[in-house]
Amino acid sequence: MEYRQLGGSGLKVPVLSFGTATFAGGEHDRAWGNTQVEEASRLVDIALEAGANLFDTADVYSRGRSEEVLGQAIKNRRDEVLISTKATFRSEAGPNGLGSSRYHLLRACEASLRRLGTDYIDLYTLHGFDALTPVEETLRTLEDLVRSGKVRYIGCSNFSGWHLMKSLAVSEKYGLPRYVAHQAYYSLAGRDYEWELMPLAIDQKVGTFVWSPLAQGRLTGKVRRNQPAPADSRVRNPSETNQSGDSETLYRTVEAMDEIAAETGKTLSQIALNWLLQRPTVASIIFGARNEEQFRENLGAVGWNLTAEQIAKLDAASATTPSYPYWHQLNFKERNPFPTL
Q1: CA–CA separation, 122 vs 49, rounded Å?
Q2: For the domain that residue 123 is a member of, what is the CATH number?
Q3: Segment 107-118, tens digit of pLDDT
Q4: Among candidates 139, 135, 131, which has minimal Cα distance to 166?
Q5: Fewest Cβ atoms closer than 10 Å to its Cβ: which of 138, 140, 143, 162?
Q6: Phi/psi of residue 258, each to 5°?
């Protein structure tokens, strides 16, 4: 397993991290998976054998049950693993049961620690931006958690560029902990991350944890021209449809991946993950698995690299016209270069 420095911090993380949204499988999350403690322990064993020692969860996954199952799966081997969990989305009833206020974050962190069966969290991530809470309040609360030893590093997820840059500026102004990681959606089926968040991450040394790298299964070969998605697939969930680009671009991308799969003998999933590992700022890819077979297939994305020609083919097939002002800025590459072009 390859390990990379996480942003501007001193922490090294594996390039593949195991996402545990499949653990527990409450009613809302059952389409993702329904992994219980025995199987979760087996997957943790396989991950550690492969060197994938970072496990990502959140307090809202299966209403906290994902954290509980993960906590039981890593019991008696806490020192071998890195834990990343998230807060901000609603986890309690009432007007203060969500957000990034001091009130909610302190309660959410204590609840996560109890469910995970640990006294510290390696990477504590805000699941989304809270526009109603002052950034200073949020960051001072996170500083208290760091100083108390309950949190080692802090990150954010699904922030806009200005959300992240404002937060980093406030951290610098007041000497508060900085976000060292940004958990973001990025894949061959959705490359919006590249236009603003990637240049910001390069400039500010923020490492990227990629979520949904296979675009909810769209990059596994389940979705093709004139081929409907399987009935039990997340792809059929209307709430997730808009997380990827247009259908024609997806079909074109999958066809290019088919050609590369024939050249390399790799699966489409492995090709999609390997492409991401060669993008700037990517520190780790969070992958999930419903079973051991899927898990081992995803682990096969490391230990080899796509060629420059293959990457260029995938880049061309998945390219779309960016929104303003990025399409305008492309005319000034001499002074405003984009890192992936």
Answers
A1: 20
A2: 3.20.20.100
A3: 999 999 999 999
A4: 135
A5: 162
A6: -60, -40
Q: What is the pTM of this model?
A: 0.92
Count: domains in the chain: 1
How far apart, in whole angstroms, are the C-alpha atoms of residue 261 and residue 245?
22
Clarify whether 61 is annotated catalytic.
Answer: yes
Classify burial at 228, counting beta carbons within 10 Å of its beta carbon; exposed 0-12, middle 13-18, buried 19 or more: exposed
In a domain, 341, yes or no: no
How many other CB atoms are there within 10 angstroms of residue 286's CB atom?
Answer: 20
Q: Could you tell me the residue range of the domain that residue 58 belongs to?
A: 3-332
Residue 220 to residues 235, 254, 257, Cα–Cα distance (Å): 11, 8, 10
- Angle at Cα 12 formed by Cα 42 and Cα 187, nearest 5°? 75
Question: What pLDDT does 174 receive?
Answer: 98
Give the whole-angstrom CA distance, residue 14 versus residue 4.
Answer: 6
Is 340 part of any domain?
no
Cα distance between residue 74 and residue 81, in whole Å: 8
Find the catalytic residue in 3, 61, 153, 193.
Answer: 61
Question: How far apart (Å, rounded) are the C-alpha atoms in residues 269 and 143?
Answer: 38
